[in-house]
Amino acid sequence: MDAGLTGLLARVAARPAGQPFVGGRSGVLDGPAFAARAGALAAGMRASGVLPGDRVVACLEHDVDLAVFPFACAQLGALSVLVNPRLKPDQVRHIVEDADAGLVLISPARRTGLAVGMEELAGTRTVRALGRIEGIPELASDADPVACGPDSGGATTILYTSGSTGRAKGIVQSGRSLVEGGRIVAGYLGLGATDHVLGVLPLSFDYGLNQVLAAAHAGSRVTLQSYLFAAEVVRTLRDLQCTGLAGVPELWVDVVDALAREAVPVEELRALRYVTNSGGRLPERVIQHFHQHLPWVDVFSMYGLTEAFRSSFVPPDALRAGRRGIGLPIPGVDLDVVDPRTGVPCPTGEVGELVHRGACVAEGYWRQPAMSALRFRPDPSRRGTFQVHSGDLARRDAEGYFELLGRADEQLKIGGYRVSPDEVVDAVRTVAGVTSAAAVGVASGRDELPSLCVLVHGEADPGAVVSACRRSLPPWMVPARVLVRQAPLPRGPNGKIDLEAVRRCFAERE
Length: 510
Hints:
The termini are far apart. By secondary structure, the chain is α/β, with parallel strands linked by helices. It has a 9-stranded mixed β-sheet with strand order 2-1-10-9-11-12-13-14-15, sandwiched between helices. The chain has 16 helices and 26 strands. The longest helix is centred in the N-terminal third of the chain and has 17 residues, at 31-47. The model is unreliable at 132-137 (pLDDT under 50).
């Protein structure tokens, strides 16, 4: 079978007719209909002048057509660029310009929301509207649908980072790494034809896209849903009898709160077989809530980054037994801890930079050779391949489990000591009334030295937060300022806490 997305599309096309594959607000497609839709979209894009190697940007809702889009581009040899529906016009404009897109597909609803930004692009790029699932009138052509052709598994998609701390950068993914990521995750999750995955994460997020790819590989069903409140997610899990859900820490905090308020009785979620977390540490209270109130659900605590797609997970039984951290490498992936200056592997228990090798490593940054050379370096163990230097600090124990200590560029120097914000947040989360928290360094005083500041969502007493930190942390890790607010913490497009926005919350209080 082909190594890339067209090979996976052929697998989807071979599914039994009438067996649902991808669904959303606009309808549900079985495997043959999904493949036909991809062929029709590819034909329309080809008629619009798309050539192999061109970049095509999709500004679409979190719906079926967005799932079809990367498969259609792969049939043309074009690179798909999926845009998060939550991005603002200037963010979308940056992505379109940075990718040097030859075609922008935009739905009627998105055209309304992005009118100013997209009109500015109309003079230099072709902007075409994409209709709903019933047809593609604006891209219609008399050409026959494009059939699946050979696919080497080379560069096929550019995934843009959320850009919460600066301009989003594009990461080039090969079809081979995307398909391998889907296959590997489907394997350790045990996905099969009876599974129905609820996909709430944006497909522009590698973690969200993996839900579709894993379901495509395993013969499972996936339903895409946009939501405003966690109670909607919980009700959908019940109504559709979904078996799996992927989320980030802040979503799980909201879901647990919704379950605690009995938005849905937990007994009505008996179909739910597993949940997964990535994008940050899973709060302990979330883990305990699932283990105590939904013991039939397997909780997979996972870790990955867009540059390496998927990397590691803690097996559910190990999580139940008290194992924490980022777990063991997933099949087909090799992790190592190295000295960031020399690249030499660190001894067991010593802190260093986490390095990724193997099946899921990306191709590099889009048109940023210097940055690519810094992060994607030759793999000394495999000639002709590359490894990702993550920028994450970690250590490995004697049993081969990895513990993540935070990003090197987010480590704070407080009173001459290095402080990991994640360790501070873990201590804060134990305080009564704390729903979620974020720790950042905020410049203070004439010398611009950072002070450790913690923003809390909930109804906790700031003094109680500081006292808890004093009891469990060394003096240099006790926050100088604690700000409690009832409004949820600011989040980026992928649902993660936006650390730049958190810093602004403190700056506005100066």
